[in-house]
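Entry 0007
Protein: DUF2911 domain-containing protein
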Amino acid sequence: MRPVALIALALLAAAPLSAQGGAAQPGALRAPLSTRVVFSMPLAPPRVQGQPAPTPKNVSIEYGQPHARGRAVPTELNADGTVWRTGANSSTTLRTETALVIGGADVPAGNYSLYTIRQNGQYFLIINNNTGQWGTEYDATKDLVRVPLRMRQRSEVQESLQIVMVPADNQSARGVLSISWGRLELTADWSAK
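Output (structure tokens):
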């Protein structure tokens, strides 16, 4: 081969390597903008006198947790009528081994995707039967139910999205589902059936 062809071949071979590596740009973020979070809690059914203690059933919520990291977090999570994946990246997943009531709606044991929508200023939690998809792949025909959410403005800014099922007490399998980020908190009551 001629020397010019060898140099050209060497440059072509090295180009992908330099595009993938190299020094970080000044001011570039060095941490991910989201984290994968799994919230899990065992729910013990009520004990019947004279019977063995029932085995606790697990409920978990897995979601991509976006972080503000200097970005402005809007006080309203999404525009009116626009479905939000309620997290980052892949869809948020609710897995429950026991039937639940969320916001007055029956949710059988199973796996679900969670989305949020705001309509006419009211937020709703969408519990959807489709699971395992990327967060933006929403199919309304797979909705199990839409649950109205209570909304309040927090006094302090929350840096990272948080989704939790807060138990009312240590004795009962009921409480409040809370979705909060920035100054906005959305809640609905929940209980095990």
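Curator remark: Residues 3-31 have pLDDT under 50 and may be disordered. The first strand starts at residue 34 and ends at 43.
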